[in-house]
Amino acid sequence: MLLPKKVKHRKWHKGRRRNLGVATRATKLSFGDYGLKSETHGWVTSRQIEAARKVLTRYVRRGGKVWIRIFPDKPVTKKGNEVPMGGGKGAPDHYVAVIKPGTVMFEMVGVPESEAKEALAMAGYKFGVQTRFVQKLV
After folding, report:
1. What CA–CA distance (Å, rounded) separates 65 from 57?
2. Range of 115's domain?
3. Residues of the chain with pLDDT under 70
């Protein structure tokens, strides 16, 4: 699973303006011919990214290549079970990538369009955000 090697701050705030705005970076296909683009806001966990990566590599086999354009660098904390209120913030539990509408999450090349469409649709089911298939204009 993906997680940062080193972080400046172990615990982050959630952020107040969570479901506002659209992506300004990673909005176009840069590496591959086909991609998976988000349509809604959300957090994508490192486990979800890994599940989608497995789906795509199964479809690609040796013929193609897959790029992951997102990285989970935001720590999410969680307190233990049956812990009373108070006692401070919980320990970091897992990492998420913050996704805005328009972010290209995955790219692939080296497979026919029909296979790429099917693979990216299967990968899109793994996320808590709505996604759509995009392809490079020729």
Report:
1. 8
2. 34-76+93-135
3. none
